[in-house]
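Subject: complex prediction, re-run

Hi both,

The earlier run crashed halfway through, so I resubmitted it with identical inputs.
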Amino acid sequence: MPRQTPLLQGTLDLLILKALALEPLHGLGVSRRVEQITRGAYVVGPGSLFPALHRLEERGWLVSSWGESENNRRAKYYELTKAGRRQLAAETEEWTRVAGAMRAALEST
Amino acid sequence: MIGRIAVLARSLWSNLVRRQRVEEALDDELRAYVDLVAAEYERAGMSPASARRTALVDTGGVERVKEAARDAWVGNALAQSSRELRYSLRSLRRSPTFLGVAVATLGIGMGGSTAVFTVIKGSLLRPLPGVAEPTRLVSVERVQSGRLIAEFSYPDYQDLRAHSTTLAGLAAYNGTSMALVDSSGTGRAWVSYVSDNFFRVLGVRPAVGRLFGPADTSASVEGAGAVVVLGYALWQQRFGGSPSAIGATLSLDGRAYTIIGVAPPGFIGAMATHPMELWIPIGVGDRPTPALDGRMDLASRRIGWFRLVARLAPGRRIEDAQRELAAIAGWLAATYPTTRDRGVRVLAGTGMTEEERVEARRLPGLLAMAVALLLLIACGNVASLTLVRAAARRRELATRLALGASRGALIRQLVLEGIVIAAGAGIAGIALARLLVHSAALVGSVTPVPDPDLTMDLRVLAVALAASVLTAVLVSVVPAMQVSRLHAGAVLKDGGGAVRRRSAGGQRALVAAQVGASLVLLTAAAIVFGALRRTLAAHETFEPGGLIDVQLDVDASVKDPTRQLAFYRAVLAQVVSEPEIAGAALTSTVPPFQWASRATVFRRGEEPPPGALIGRELESGLRVDAVEVSRDFFDLMRIPLLRGRVLAATDDEHSAPVAVVSRALAEALWPGQDPVGRFIAWPAVEGPPRPPVRVVGVVGDTRDVSLSGGPSLAMYLPFAQRAGGNLGLIARGRGGASVAPATLRRIVAAVDPRVAVLGGRSLLDRLRDETRPQRTASAWIGVFGIIALLLAAIGLYGVVAQDVLQRTRELAVRSALGASPGGILRTVLGDGMRLAALGGAAGALGTIAALGVLRSFFTGVGAVDMRAAIVSAAPLALAMLAATYLPARRAARLNPADALRCD
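This time it finished cleanly. Structure:
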């Protein structure tokens, strides 16, 4: 099992937005996708996942709808809104900027 | 931005209003999640049952996740509070004893203290009624040799009035009792003589007719000066409220006056404690108005006759007036040697004597202290009650914690419970206060404290409310803190029994502490109430029962002093020979010597030389009540003789002047020495010189009528050696029966038909009237005390009963193991009594400490108050017994199986 990293403040929201960028997912799907795209560094448990999903939905970045899951069960699917995509773009840019700055700072001699 | 607000609003709307649907959705979502995880495990080869169990464990507690998700919702705190509020209400409903006692205790404490404070303040500390803006009125007084003196001479008054610019008006007044004769009969009435601007300064408008103006007192107007303004009550009484009274005439002390107007309802003049019934001008020019002719010299600066009341000019403060009037007084002192060393003091609050002012300052402090003690008892009760309950609730709280409630939520709920209690108590308290004040207003209308101001004192109510809320919240934080330290598992495993055993020691200590604290607080309350009562007591140190009192208006018809004496002697002889009369005496006034003539006395040899009797010299003497009486006065009044002899029939106009003094006067003049045989000098300020009098006896004290109820400094003189003035007659019927006034009238008429006989009320009635505000207040202090006692008893009952109730389980076990009901009862009662003894001992120690503190506040805290403490301990013991016995009996009778299950 890969080493798990504690989530940085604010990264969970960004990761969820990113996870949903490709297609709508239900809760477990978001959790699995995050695990996958971070190569196992982050495992999001339901205790943080659902509050975050609800928070993002209340901000208008996600919408939810009930749908059929892969094994024919009812599940709640989340998908990005237009505002959500804008937010993802803005946060990605911000994150890249911060990450670049951090790397530069740490690599300087 | 607008879009964002719309989204937020929609969320808020669905979270709050369509809560149910939102909750269901959350439920569904989580169920689906668990299903999905379980399906994954099943695919990996687990059995359906273990896959499901593993999925649930992975999820980490569905309720916990839900709680976390809810926290993310907009407006969740709001929705949660209303849910928690409902929960708190339900939880409180489950313990009705606790809820009832807590709400009742705080409510009674709050309502009782507010009502009592309102009534006492309203009847004793009210501002002057019937005047405009009473707070802008000030009293102007003299300072002489460091003492305040209310009265100014007429010329001094006129100078101050003429030169002041900081005052919008300065009026002079004083009052006296006069014989009133009008078409409806004769009587006596309180007449105030006032300057022409009196009504204008006070801002009073007539109910009917007009009030005085300068035209009524101008020397150049023919027939000026003989005009009178009626008080509203007198107008109603004697003229039936008819407007035709205007223009009618009445006679005051034998002089005719024309009625020109009626004062508005409620107006009693400028002295709050001495209601006046009629107003006449002081004089016309510098000549006194007819009824005052011969009583005062308006041209002299030597003697002060008039009290001054002023209204501050707009924008001026009391300090401005003080500065200006002091300057004027300085100029007067420099100009007129008679007025040297006279200063002026401007004081807030009109129409109060110096003693009344001291009391007015003292009373609110005492009242506040009493209110604080009452609230302390109430809050203390609720605090200990909550603590006892907290111990019982540890299990419940631990269970909820284990089921996923967050600690924050638990603490919020406990605080909310406290607020619910405080709110309930607040409503109950306000209702009670209103009820009490309302009933006081009813009582007041039956026995008129003239117009008490009974608007509820909101400051007290606010303080009481704040105290209750604070208590409720603070004490609810204690169990909440316990919860935070709580390890749920440990408490639950203990199953209550062990917890009980462990916390039992602390809880017993709490009960004992409550007993002790109640005792200390009650004793303190008893002492404060005692001090308040003494402050207000017109404690009768003589026996007025069965006595009738009439005034003989001799001066108006018999002028010659020798013939007056002969008349009095004849009347007295006739009255005592009447078969229905057991005893009678002549006296110039009756105790409390509110209206006695005052004299300034010295030890002989220390009086100022004749002619120097002004200013400092006179002020260095003692102001005493000079009372002229006949021999049997002391016997009739049951005033005991302590030393020497009382006055005798031989102390007459031909013998050497003598006096009998009250113990207080003897102590003041010759501390620790025998006064009999010594001489008292009481030089006259004007008129013929007065020789010193020899003290022949000392009699017991009577109290004066003032709120502080100090003993009168009384000097009793034989009536035959008196200077002049009317005397009254007091008589007691045979076998304690009261004497008919008609009998006395008949006897007096037989001696001299020209002499009017006035009054004729029983002395008891008169005293009741004169001390009514004090007695009203005193009665309310009694109510205060009863409330305090009630609260302490209720609180003790609550704490003890809760404690015993919590032992139900333990008692059931004992019973199941074979203990007899009687044995259980004995055990519980024995425990209770041990606690009571322990608490009582602690309370006694605390009381001794409290006494030390209270002694520094109140003089004369002593045996009487200790008796009050012991008396107040009896109901406490009773409450303790009942609180132990009743639940214990119930526990003893319980089926053990039921009791064990009921936890």
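Chain B touches chain A at residues 3-4, 7-8, 11, 25-26, 28-30, 32-33, 35-37, 39, 58-60, 64-65, 68-69, 71-74 (CB under 8 Å).

- K.
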